[in-house]
Amino acid sequence: MKASLKRNIASGIIVLTPVAVSAYVVYWIYQRVAGLPGTQYLRVTGSQTVNELIQVGFAIAVIVVILGIVGYVVRTAAGNILKDEMDRLAGQIPVVRIVYNATKMGVETIMGSNAEEFDRPVKIEIAGLRITGFKTGNTTEDGREVVFFPTSPNITSGYVVDVEPERLETTDESTEEALTRVLSAGFGMEADDDIKGLLPEDEDEGGSEDEG
């Protein structure tokens, strides 16, 4: 029961954190734009409601322009260096690391970038241990699959490995589910029958007793 509650709470945090952080950032920018000197000149009509709508439209337009400029800068070489440095710094602070990565993953998932970068999640067994990875959609000249194995909980780092296709085991997880499990250090995974089958019988039975 407690384990299930922890998983539910972890999953809820991972889902809501990107939304909350993104909403706060947009709201913060909006407040600053709406309070800029000169916005009072946007009151061009005698209706307060219309004037407020004009101000809101102006603020939204400015936010879109700001986000567009930031996005353009990040796509440049200098921007990539700055982004990598931000990822590195965020990854060194425990609490910030989780929030930052959750936000980044959530935004990338919503915008569809993960679907472009990652194929279906896969697993590979090494020395009796199963490791989660993601196909990049690329292959080497000798036919090996190029697979990305992210670290946990900092999924912005990891290992790119060339693996023989026959060593890869496909899963029923979606990309988002697998990323959530890796990001949450395993706490966000659902205890379904497939996962329970990976546990030793005594641990599985013990978990059932706890839930009872």
UniProtKB/TrEMBL annotation:
Annotated spans, Disordered: 191-212
Keywords (alphabetical) are:
Membrane, Transmembrane, Transmembrane helix
- Where composition is biased (Acidic residues), the residues are 200-212
Ranges annotated as spanning the membrane: 12-30, 53-74
Q: Does the keyword Transmembrane apply?
A: yes
Q: Which domain of life is it from?
A: Archaea
Any single Pfam family the record assigns to this protein:
DUF502
InterPro entries reported for this sequence: COV1-like (IPR007462)
Q: Protein transport as a keyword? A: no
Listed name of the protein: DUF502 domain-containing protein
